[in-house]
Amino acid sequence: MKRLLFVALATFITVCPTHRAMAWGNTGHAVIAYYAEQLLDEDVKQKCHHYLHSTLAFQASWMDQYRSIEPFTECDKWHSTNIDANYKVVVGRHDTAAFQIERIRKEMADYNSMPDSLVKLNLRYLIHMIGDAHCPVHVRWSRKEHPEFHYSLLNKGKKYSYHGFWDSSLQRWRTKWTAERYVEEIGFLSKGKAKKITKGTAYDWTQETADVARTKCFPLIPAGTEVSTLPQDKRYKMHYIAEQQVQRAAYRLAAVLTEIFKE
Amino acid sequence: MKKIFLALALICGVYTAQAWNWVYDQAALLLAYENMTPAAQTELKKYLGEDYSKQVQTFQKARKAGNLLESAEWEQISLDMDLKPVVADDKNAIAQLEMAVEVVKNRATKSNEEVALAMHKLIELTIAMHNVGNISLEEFPYSKEDFEFQQSAGGYGKKEKFRTRKWKHFWSYGFSVFHSVWSADMHVRELKVCRGRNKEQYMAGSIRDWATDMGKVVKPLYEWAGPDCYLSRLAHSQYEELYLDGVARASYRIAALFNEATK
Fold first, then answer.
1. How many domains does chain A have?
2. Residue B117: how many other CB atoms lie within 10 Å
3. Is residue A3 a part of any domain in this protein?
4. Per residue in B168-207, pLDDT tens?
C-alpha cells in the first residue's frame, strides 16, 4: 500500500507542474506586446485595435488573469510546451502553447467569417502565448526524464524558485523602467534579420527557447545560486538572454498578426 | 496640541480623498491637452508653465505639506436618491469646479495665482469627481466610508486567498499594479483606442450632468459592494473597465472645461 501511495505521489509530482507559471509577468508581456505594436503597419494595427477595443499591451496579461475563471480554465495549460527525453519539442499535444498558437494561426486565416468576440479571444491568446513560448522557463521538462533541470536558487539565504527568477529576469534590478525604455534599450532589427527570425512555426520557436534554456540559462544560473549577489557579468548575460527572447517574441507576434490581417 | 490636530488633518486628508496613481493623472491631463482648443492650450501653458503635464496631484502634495487641507473636501461629490448632485455649500468638487470656471473666464481681472489655482481645480477636481472612491450616494451611506473588503490575492479555486483592502485606496491605486511598466503616453494611447469613440458624448453636458452620469456608473457597483464583500479576480478585471472609463471621461471633460472657460 505504501509503495502504491509512493508511486501515485511520484506520478502526481511528475505530471503536475509544481509552480503556477506566470511567464514574464505583467511587465514582460506588456513590453513584448508594446514592442510588437511598434512593428506593425498602420492598417494591421488598426485591425487589431478594432477587434480588441484596446492596444495590444493592455491585453497582454489577460490570459494570466482569466486562467482560473470559467469558461477559460481550459487554457490554463496553454502557457508552456513539453520537451521530450531527447530535448525535442513535443508536437501535437493539445495542452501546449505551441499547438494552440499554430491552431489559432490556421483558424484566423478565415477571421472574416468569425464572430468579432472569437477574433478578440484568439488575439488575446496569441499575444500572450507567443510571449510565453519565448520564456526560458515555459518549456516543460519532465522531472523523470530531466531531473537535472529541477532545482531551486537562493535569495538572501532563503530558498527561491528558479522559475520565478527567470519569469522576472527582464525587469530584475530595473525599477521604474517603462515599456518604451525597454524597447529603446533592446533596439530594432534590420529588415533582413527580422525576416529571418520570423520564419517557422511556434514549434520551431519553442525548440529554440528550449535550446536557450538548456544551453544558456541553466549553465548561467546553476542550482543553489545566491541571486541577491549575482555578479555583474552574470546579470548582464541574464538580461541579454531575456531581451533577446523578448525581441524574438515581439517580431514573431508582429509577423503572425501581419500574416492574419495584412490585405 | 496644534501639531496633533495638524497630523490628524493630514492623515484624514490622505485617506479621505485621493487621486489615481500619478501616471494615470498625468495621462488624463495629456489627453485633455490634445483635445483643447489652441486658445485653451495657450492659456494652460501661460498659467501652469510648459511642464504643465507634471503638475498633477498638487493638492495632495500640498496637504502632505500641511497646506490647503480643505482641498480634501473639494474632491468629494455626493448624490441624492435621484442621483442629483448635492451642492449645499462649496465643500465639494461641483461647487469648486463651477467657481473655478468663472475665475478662468474672468481671468483678466484676477491675479495669476488665482487663475493658476482655478486651473489646478479644473484639472484635479475633474479627475477626483471621476474616481469611484470620491463619490458618495445617499442611498448607500457606507459609500462615504473607506470601508474594508476582501480582495482576491492569488491562489485558485478552494485555495484562493483573500486580503483585506480599503475601498477608496483600491479605487485610487488598485489597477496600476497591472501596469507598472506603462508610461503616461502609453495610457494616453490606450484611452484613445478604447474610449476615443465616446469623446463627444463625454464632453457634452454640464458639471452637474457629469456628476449624475458618474452616479449611474457607480450605483450598480454599490448595489453589490459594501463592507466585507469579496472581490473576485474576475470582478477586479471587470472593474478595470470602469476605472479606465473614469479616466477617459475625466480627460475629455477637463478639455471641455478649459475650452469653455477660455472661449
1. 1
2. 19
3. no
4. 999 988 888 788 899 999 999 999 999 999 999 999 999 9
- CA–CA gap between residue B128 and residue B59 (Å, rounded): 11
Contact criterion met (CB < 8 Å) for A180 and B186: yes
CATH code, domain with A124? 1.10.575.10
Residue of B24, B151, B156, B181 to mutate, interface with A, max A Cβ within 10 Å: B181
pLDDT, one tens digit per residue, over A50-91 is 999 999 999 999 998 888 777 888 899 999 999 999 999 999
Cβ atoms of residues A138 and A211 within 8 Å: no
Instruction: Enter the pTM of the model.
Output: 0.88
**Contact check, Cβ <8 Å, B181/A69:** no
* Cβ-based contacts of A20 with chain B (< 8 Å): 156
In chain B, residues with a C-beta closer than 8 Å to the C-beta of A48 are none
Q: Are A26 and B157 inside 8 Å of each other by CB?
A: no
Burial of B221 (0-12, 13-18, 19+ CB in 10 A): middle
Q: Give the range of the structural domain holding residue A235, as residue numbers without chain letter.
A: 9-261
What is the interface pTM, i.e. ipTM, of the complex?
0.86
Q: Are strands B77-79 and A158-161 parallel, antiparallel or unpaired?
A: unpaired
